[in-house]
Specification:
By secondary structure, this protein is α+β, with helices and mostly antiparallel strands. It has 14 helices and 18 strands. Strands 1, 2, 3, 6, 7, 8, 15, 16 and 17 form a nine-stranded mixed beta sheet that branches. A four-stranded antiparallel beta sheet has the order 11-13-9-14, covered by helices on one side. It has a three-stranded antiparallel beta sheet with strand order 4-5-18. Helix 1 packs across helix 4. The chain is globular, with a radius of gyration of 24 Å. The two termini are about 15 Å apart.
Length: about 475
Amino acid sequence: MKNQLNTVLETLEAQTEQSLERLFEILRIPSISTDPAFHQDCENAAQWCANMLNDIGFEAKVFPTQGKPMVVGHYSPDFEVSGPRILFYGHYDVQPADPLELWDTPPFDPHLLDHPEHGKIIVARGASDDKAQFLTFLEACRAWHYVHKSLPLHITVLLEGEEESGSPSLPEFLDTQKESLKADIALVCDTGQWDNKTPAITTMLRGMAFTEVTLTGPNRDLHSGIYGGPVMNPIRALTKILGNLCDDQGRIQIPHFYDDVAPLSDNQKTQWEALNFQDIAYLESVGLSVPAGETGYSALEQLWSRPTLEINGIYGGYTGPGNKTIIPSTASAKISFRLVADQDPHKILQNFQDFIRSQIPDDCSVSFQNSDGSPAVCFDQSSIYVKSAAKALEDEFGTPALMMGCGASIPIVESFQNVLSMDALLVGFALEDDCIHSPNEKYNLSSFISGQRSWARIIDAFTRIN
């Protein structure tokens, strides 16, 4: 297949301008899933994706849901192939572009601009998360089909439109369509590489648990001059409890929180130390300078292999302009946990609730809302899919692919395991400075080009897996 691959790579190079034009088309569609005002734009983006798939030989269809449409495309070669069946996943929806005044160019008017470090960059909302990312795979498929009039594998593409709003329609869709979506391996592109010269495969994802706690004191808001002093203030009580969640060394004080946390292996620790990750530079990039978190662990160790607890928001009483001297009836906080392998999110949430209840002062009551979570996911680095993809990435970049962790969570990966009974391979070409979810989101032109070439190589490598 070597000569076939070379021809595909040459075709990708020759058609860079056309692939950019297609990318700019989808970037111009403001497919913001969280805002009902953009529902029609999401439907337009879904139809654009289906048309794109049909154009390169897939049998693609837009599936309506209770929310935003799903797009599914199937490709079956008209000759016998021995490689694995592939399910490729991406999402066409994007985050809101606010605040608009911080964009240097309009968020849905994509531009190719010069960058002092990265050369040419593509600037638009959705450029990195996730439109250019999934298009790298589709453009690789287009080149294969253009050159050989066929793809060399059975490939299904699933593109959803609610990833940025929690994927509420996805569980039911996967359950009802699981027979048509089942494959040997799922490919997920919503990840990144270590730096612009080092490709990566993400082999560890932290899990997540989240909840909202509400403390209630008096039965109504009270005048602080008449009731202040003898009446318990729930904001004061809640902030005291929240302050007890971690000690001065950054250790979470919930009983049994660390029971299932395995220590990092010496081999893994050595590999990560060799990356020479600069903790201070990492903090300085967001305007900070003093390391926090668990004492004794580097920033990478904390991000990839240690669980965390964060207070995401706290509110109660009067928060409008000027003063309103009250003792509020309630105080609330939103809490999230990032979890590592073997930690059970439901057990973590139960222990958290027990901890909070044990510290509630007299005359206060507590309730919990919106509690849910998903476990961490780890992948076997010795699998044939990881090895084949790693070799393909090394061939493209000229440097070995890094097996890296990810501090974030990608719930779809757990769904693939639990609903479709398949593992996932996480390969993406985003960079840390792509400003996803922020103004001036960008994607390097070099990432767009090397991403297409890498997927072409991975497709070729998978043809040799029996």
